[in-house]
Amino acid sequence: MNWHIKGSYYENCSCTNTCPCTWSSMLAPATNDYCRANLAFKISEGTINDIKMDGLIFVIIVDSPPVMADGNWKVGIVVNDTASDEQMEALGLLMSGDIGGPPAMLKDLIGEMLGMEKHPVSISHNGNDFHVQIGDAFDYSATIITNPVTEEPVKLVGMLHPAGNELKIANVHKLSASSVLGVNFGGKDLSGYQIEFSWAA
After folding, report:
1. What's the whole-model pTM score?
2. Residue 66 sits in which domain range?
3. Do 1 and 7 form a contact (C-beta atoms < 8 A)?
4. Could you tell me the sign of the dihedral formed by the alpha carbons of 162, 163, 167, 172, in that order?
5. Is residue 201 assigned to a domain?
């Protein structure tokens, strides 16, 4: 099956800036005794199993041990509440890892699937600032960090990550959190990232 999706990616995790899991390709431990994250994908265009996915937002919710490469992740998927049943089914197929792409890379790391739920999800992005709200569970604003001389975004390059091997580093100023799919975290000055992504198989 040929499929593709592309768009914008936004991340926040429970580590303080900058998350060791990213620059070490998941081999260094988190700054806490766990790693909890929300990985938000806003699809600008794409097709899975002949279903158009344009405009869909989905968020991978992760609760893992401090060394992510050890596996045994708990993972759930939140999808924006405007998604159709056909889009939900296509996304479930993608996230199973059975049709290739980055989800296949993550498949062996997952120890427990927490399910897939619809919630209102909104993402706004203006210049270097972005804001992500996932239902009543996660609400955070972040700023992409820039070089003070060149004003270009500071990036991580060359590591292993499902969104790609290059990420703009962001500071999540404050995460107000409750719980979604049993995963809960919050705090100030947490790790964040942003990049344009493109998946295909």
Report:
1. 0.94
2. 4-196
3. no
4. negative
5. no
